[in-house]
Amino acid sequence: MSVFTPLTPDQVGSWLKRYSLGALERLEGVAEGLQNSNFFVDTVHGRYVLTVFEQFNREELPFFVNLMAHLARHGIPCPTPIANRDNEYVGEIAGKPAIIVTRLGGRSLTQAGVAHCAAIGTLLGDLHVAAQSCGVRQKHQRGAAWRRETAKQLLPLLAADDAALLRDEIRHEAQQVSGELPRGIIHADLFRDNVLFDGERVSGLLDFYFAGVDALLFDLAVAANDWCRGAEEGGELDAARTVALLNAYHAVRPLSEREHLAWPAMLRAAALRFWLSRLLDAHRPRTGELVARRDPDEYRRLLRGHIAANRRQVWIDPPAA
Ligand SMILES: Nc1ncnc2c1ncn2[C@@H]1O[C@H](COP(=O)(O)OP(=O)(O)O)[C@@H](O)[C@H]1O
Ligand SMILES: N[C@@H](CCOP(=O)(O)O)C(=O)O
């Protein structure tokens, strides 16, 4: 996250009185992330993370908070939301909705190896299975309809070759049949900075604020695009890491023949999703105390790499059931 809403120790100290977490010992703004304002909060009882929501109103939060609570109960290493003395997860600070969750140990990786990618495959499979019994549902907010609408807004702002790429990609996506793929709640943003590792063990899965129902394969493609991207400038995936990710996932939730066939298009859809959101951020920058930005060109290169690989038929295929 970035800090868009600065908070003082006094503000947080008096807010904490609504919880049974003890008095504030230390408050620190977190520089990573893009969507919300996050603070590490240490109290006499433990270590927590306070998230102030910049883009959601109160009514939109119960889905995410209940999903995290459900997954934590089912052994997924995600933060556990803490209820206040009125037994509510969602509170308010600085006029904005806020929650406090357990702070997990470990560190996010800048470079992932084969063993890390296998751990991510297992984690994602476990997440998809555990989420099946979650009582709350909502649509994935960055799905195909969002991509179409966002492309329309961005097209007039882009250079001719980018606009042509975007138009072709939206057309390509419309020709796919992803509606027939297995669906469920997906994390939808499983990048390296949203996972904490302790050695080769996953100690934390963070940032559920894009989660929602969509094709499960989309989640795997988002993860492959970030965790398995090769070191070179183009958009090819590293074979060993991709195979490790896919095989580990397949061992938990076997991929179907239909998913196998849909994989190349799904990698493109997942690359398109982040090219679009990064372009939007670049064209409408937000202000704040510590604001992180991500490079749209990285995902344009990845998208072009997938299109070129598609023409040459050099996909690293997932195992088929
Ligand atoms: N529960 C947590 N335990 C440990 N670190 C956390 C936790 N929540 C957030 N963080 C830290 O804060 C950063 C930003 O959090 P994130 O949820 O990704 O924010 P945003 O929603 O703004 O993207 C993470 O990369 C991680 O370093
Ligand atoms: N993973 C996305 C950005 C989403 O922001 P996050 O900080 O909430 O993960 C990207 O890399 O574009």
TrEMBL record:
It is an enzyme of class 2 (transferase). The keyword NADP does not apply. PANTHER family: AMINOGLYCOSIDE PHOSPHOTRANSFERASE DOMAIN-CONTAINING PROTEIN, AMINOGLYCOSIDE PHOSPHOTRANSFERASE DOMAIN-CONTAINING PROTEIN-RELATED. Keywords: Amino-acid biosynthesis, ATP-binding, Kinase, Nucleotide-binding, Threonine biosynthesis, Transferase. Its EC number is 2.7.1.39. Pfam families: APH. One of its GO terms (molecular function) is homoserine kinase activity. This is Homoserine kinase. It comes from Rhodocyclus tenuis (Rhodospirillum tenue). Pathway: Amino-acid biosynthesis; L-threonine biosynthesis; L-threonine from L-aspartate: step 4/5.
